[in-house]
Amino acid sequence: AMKSKRVLSPVHDTRYVNALAELQSDSNGWNFIHPSVNLYSLISRSKLVIGMPFTSAVMIAKELGVPCCYFLASDEVALSASFNGIPVVQNLDVLEKWIIETVHET
User: Fold this and answer.
1) Do 95 and 103 meet the contact criterion of CB atoms below 8 Å apart?
2) Close Cβ partners of 102 (under 8 Å, ≥ 6 residues apart)
3) In which order are the strands placed within the sheet that holds 82-83?
4) Residue in 51, 53, 49 with CA at minimum distance from that of residue 78
5) What is the pLDDT of residue 62?
6) CA atoms of 11 and 99, how far apart (whole Å)
7) Interior CA angle at 35 toward 88 and 8, to 5°?
8) Which of 6-20, 46-60, 86-100 has the lowest mean pLDDT?
9) Which of 4, 5, 12, 62 is the most exposed place for a label (fewest CB within 10 A)?
10) In whole angstroms, what is the distance from residue 106 CA to residue 102 CA?
11) Residue 60 contacts by C-beta under 8 Å, 6 or more apart in sequence?
């Protein structure tokens, strides 16, 4: 699932709006959560949380004891393997392995 912080508006970059529209139109399993939904409530019911580095959703997941990691699909930025005890993943294969291991542990 994906939850934006705010409702899309004309100030959002059209590339971002188009990318979200494409994800929503595909039958690829993406669920979009309305921005007004309480993030703590949503995360507390989640099996795991994956977010871009330093997003609040990942920090909240850690606080609530929900397995979480940061994911950055670029090697152009050098990040340490973890930040504040939260794994930082920069490779799709490693992310897939982390998801499989995490799902089997829960």
Assistant:
1) no
2) 47, 48, 67
3) 49-51, 68-71, 86-89, 82-83
4) 53
5) 97
6) 34
7) 100
8) 6-20
9) 5
10) 6
11) 39, 40, 43, 49
Q: How many residues are given for the chain? A: 106
Choice between 59 and 76, residue whose per-residue pLDDT is larger: 59
Rg (CA), the chain: 15
**Which tokens go with 27?**
């039958």
Residue 45 CA to residue 96 CA, distance in Å, equals 21
Task: Report the amino acid identity of residue 84.
Answer: N
- For 1-106, list the strands marked E by DSSP: 2-3, 32-33, 49-51, 68-71, 82-83, 86-89
pLDDT (average), residues 81-95? 90
Quote the distance between the C-alpha of residue 34 and its chain's center: 15
pLDDT tens-digit profile of 16-62?
A: 888 888 887 766 677 888 889 999 999 999 999 999 888 999 999 99
Which tokens go with 32? 């979009």
